[in-house]
Each structure stands twice: as structure tokens, then as C-alpha cells.
């Protein structure tokens, strides 16, 4: 029996216009009423998904989210952090230098704050994530005591793919480097994945791996698709996700989340 459902946002729960369909909302409500944990599992910080959690009625004491691609496990109602892995300032500087040399933008995310470092290419992150606070800063202005969650590189898809292929091998060896959307390349501490966050939350809740369903569409969802007892790929998912999944559901435009949950939980 499925006890926890980990759900990605963009391209999965959200339609292309960033809304949640009535059918998806209804089925998630029914699943929660049956006692199933509905866990939004995203690269975004909690502040950037609060409106979604509110819309889905996921702000009760027993509701949780996995944020920063597994970097934080948090209680939705209070933001209390149950587990975290962060980045050092030296790591931020190392990745920034690699991106700067490739003429790629660099946004450093610290909870709800984003520090935009100098670049000769405009970042698309602010337009893509309007719920955060953005600050233009120089590298030397970053503080050692600040908690840094991840780095985002946001630019046009073709340019991003071309330049990402030129990243030094040492960067890919030392950090988790994954695409979360066609315009977003994310850098996190080694070992930080959505599967890591889900496994930690499941341990806290006493839920076994076989009782977990994970639903996603993009490269950063691969770890949780492979980890979950039931790994679900959207019909619009990238090929690597569809290949790794146990089952493929409908697309994000066709209530794919509601469709697969209804099948497994017999709610409708």
C-alpha cells in the first residue's frame, strides 16, 4: 500500500501555465484524507512553493516538503528543518569561477534570498522564479556565515546545453550537477538528491521504500524515480526518466498525477 507520494512540480503536478488542475487537486485531497503523505519534492525553496502548499491544503502539522532537490526536509506549516545539507563559501567560489569562465550566469540561493553574481550573460532565474528576493552582489560580498543551499545557472536551453558540456570534470565529480528544467542547471553538494531527502523523511515517518511512489519528468527526478517502490514518469518526461520508471502516466496537461494516483489508491 502506498503511504507516501513524492511529487515534482514543473512538468509534473503543474500544467504548462503553472496552474494545478481541478482533477489533480481533488485526487490529492482524497489521498491525503486516506492518510497518505503528499510530499512536494522540488528544487525550489519552501518560500517559493508556499502558495502551492496553500492551494493543496498541505499546511497542516503532519505535512512535509523536500526542497532544494533533497537539500532540506521541512515541515510545511512552520518551515522547521528536519535535515539539511548546505554548501560552503569555497564551493560557491569554485563553481562561480567555472561558470564565469564559460560566460554563464550564476545565482546563489540561500533559502528565500538569491545572490546574483557578476556575469556577461543575463540570468533567466528571476523571471522563472518570482517569489524570491534577488540581490546583485560581488563575490567578495558573500559571507562565510551565510547558509548557501545551491547554485542556479539559468539561460537559454541550447546555449546552456552547449556550455554545460564544457564544465570541468572536477566540478561534476565534486558536486551534484543536474538539469531541473530546460533553462536551469543546478549545482548542489555531492550526495544531495531528491532520493536522499525522501529516504530521510521516510525513515522519520516509519515508511518503507516499497510504500513510496515518486512522480516526475526531468533529470533531477531520476534519483527518486529509481528509489521509490513505484517510480512514475510523466508522458512528457525526458527519455532517461521514462526508461527508469516502473510506469508511465499521462502528461502534465492531461491530469497525469491524478490518473496514476487514482489507479493505485482507488480514489476518484
Can you tell me about this structure?
With 268 residues, the chain is α/β, with parallel strands linked by helices. It has helices at residues 22-33, 50-55, 89-101, 125-128, 157-164, 169-174, 194-205, 222-227, 239-244, 256-265, and strands at residues 4-7, 37-41, 64-67, 72-75, 81-84, 106-110, 113-117, 133-136, 150-154, 175-181, 184-189, 212-216, 230-233, 247-248. It has 2 domains: 4-84 and 192-265, HAD superfamily/HAD-like (Rossmann fold, 3-Layer(aba) Sandwich); 89-189, Hypothetical Protein, Haloacid Dehalogenase-like Hydrolase, Chain: A, domain 2, CATH 3.30.1240. The protein has an 8-stranded mixed sheet with strand order 5-4-3-2-1-12-13-14. The protein has a 6-stranded mixed sheet with strand order 8-7-6-9-11-10. The two termini are 17 Å apart. α1 (22-33) packs parallel to α10 (256-265).
The gist of it:
By secondary structure, the chain is of the alpha/beta class.
Major sheet strand order:
5-4-3-2-1-12-13-14
CATH superfamily of the largest domain: HAD superfamily/HAD-like
The number of distinct β-strands equals 14
H-E order:
EHEHEEEHEEHEEHHEEHEHEHEH
The total tally of domains equals: 2
Q: Kindly name the structural category.
A: alpha/beta
Arithmetic mean pLDDT: 96
* Uncertain parts: none
Rg over C-alpha atoms, rounded to the nearest angstrom: 18 Å
CATH topology-level fold name of the largest domain: Rossmann fold
Organism: Pilibacter termitis
InterPro entries: Cof (IPR000150), HAD-like_sf (IPR036412), HAD-SF_hydro_IIB (IPR006379), HAD_sf (IPR023214)
GO molecular function: magnesium ion binding; phosphatase activity
Protein name: Haloacid dehalogenase-like hydrolase
